Amino acid sequence: MGEGSGHPDSMRTAFLGSYGFGNLGDELCLIEAMQSFPSTEAQAFSTGAEWTMRCAPGLSGCFRTGDAMMEFTPERVVLGGGHVGTVEAFAAFLPWMNRAAEAGAELHIHNIGVSSAVLDDRIGEDSHAALRRLTSFTVRDPASAVSVAAWGLPVRPGLSRFPERALVPDRSIATAMLPTGRPLLGISIIPYPLMDRCLRVDAARVRALLLPFTGHVVVPIVSTIHRDTGDEDDATGFRRFADRFLDGWDMALTEMLDPVWWQANMTPARLRGVIGRLDTLISQRKHNVIHGIGAGIRTIGLHPAEDNSVPRTMVAVADNLPRGSTCIGLRHQ
Questions:
Q1: Structure confidence by residue, pLDDT tens digits, 124-135
Q2: Which keywords, in A-to-Z order, does the entry hold (predicted)?
């Protein structure tokens, strides 16, 4: 049974989060939320229903507006998945949740990261009312728990520690397309301007990191090709990294860099299957870090030193880090 007080055999659940945007990490969180809150029928908010329903089997449909969610008549609403612990996301989704609560639905916020200050004048009274009506509220890392504890809500925040790392892999692409007999190094880079500066300024440190992996076959790990923003295109991030640091290295599964192939073939479970075949993963993307840790492979979080997202992730699951896993923060000046 899920975290709510109702029984799954009588629950219609609406799932809210950043779904349908082309980030496999978001739909990964949706899969886990659906497992934690089993339902007779489940629908999810999504800007790309076909994508979300392929990534998260078990959904009966998707919606894009609060009115459409209410037509589903949910008995439970779960907000979780993606970067939802922000003022903007709370302002967008909490009024929908409050409306559902007024119609009798149970409310949950599940397994999210939270920025240090969310409750301010940018969210209205209906949003505050939804927070006061929560049956449960869990966050994924200790820093988020400290933030939420300071809000003084009736419900005490629980710590989930990224339960999506237990996803069962689909190894079909890994088995069909990855080579055998040579060690594999996965690399996942986000093309944020800050990371680009770090890779220029701290290039010597990156080269030193890569040196022990000479002779590995490099696998591009692409978990996001965002439909709205180029700064969230991991294929672009990998290409820029490869141009700087990987001249002459052998590569495999470069189909990952083709957005048409990627959109048609990749799911969270298939990505987990690919990552599980690696010997080592170097990743700026936190949910790829979670895949690596869950698969038991050496995982190195490579990130701008002033961005604590990856360190927060690895601290949350510190008791389960595979041997040799660590964080490396890069300077930008």
A1: 999 999 999 999
A2: Transferase
